[in-house]
Amino acid sequence: MATTSSQSIEAEPYPFGFVPEKCALLIIDMQRDFLEPGGFGAMLGNDVNQLRRTIEPNKRLLAAWRKHGLMVMHTREGHRPDLADLPPAKKIRGRSKTCIGDPGPMGRILVRGEACHDIIQELYPLPGEPVIDKPGKGAFWATDLHGILQNKGITQLVVTGVTTEVCVNTTVREANDRGYECLVPEDCVGSYFPEFHEMGLKMIQAQGGIFGWVTHSDQIIAALG
Ligand code: C5J
Fold it and tell me: Ligand 1 — pocket residues by CB below 6 A?
């Protein structure tokens, strides 16, 4: 019978038992709409530099992950061009002048197939890396993510991307309820709001790791060797 051994990664609230062949890197919503000037996030008045600081750490982690031939998955938040999967409550939320589906400088906001909806060049998926298109904040809701992970024998997730307190946190909570062990490198996740970023990470690791573990990407790269 094949055996698997775990390596200890320094993390909060206690070391994470990392099993590389059972662990997928799940990169959440590193899309032009959230990270680039002219995207949805910037149109809502947010400072995209708060998110852009995560690009370099994600690039380094992704390169190390790919070098070891481990599983990588990407997600994109967005909707069908006919917006049939966009709940009216989500469309009107925020009472903004600009809503999901409206035209913007890089195409229709958060609509699949538009340039603004796509993943930033720096972290662009390679052929063979599954991309999960999700209509909600959590990556498990209304997607085939859980089935793909089960088919690949994945039980652990390193979750990175944006934003810490919204799509990253929602996905970590969904994953935790489905039995996955989640490790979040704090330098690879970001929020438009530094205080929400900090609290979002605290919420994951509180109460003995109620939703998962928090570490730094250097620790994961060191464990990969
Ligand atoms: C948001 C996300 N913040 N990816 N989406 O609307 O966190």
Answer: 29, 34, 77, 162-163, 166-167
Give tens-digit pLDDT for 80-100: 999 999 999 999 987 888 899
Q: Ligand 1: which of 34, 134, 173, 196 to mutate, most ligand atoms within 8 Å of CB?
A: 34
Delineate the domains of the chain, giving CATH numbers in brackets.
16-224 (3.40.50.850)
Question: Rounded to whole angstroms, what are the CA distances from 130 to 27, 103, 134, 151, 206?
Answer: 11, 27, 13, 13, 31
Contacts for 23 with CB less than 8 Å, ≥ 6 apart: 70, 71, 154, 155, 156, 157, 158, 183
Q: Which atom, in ligand 1's list, is nearest to the CA of 167?
A: 7
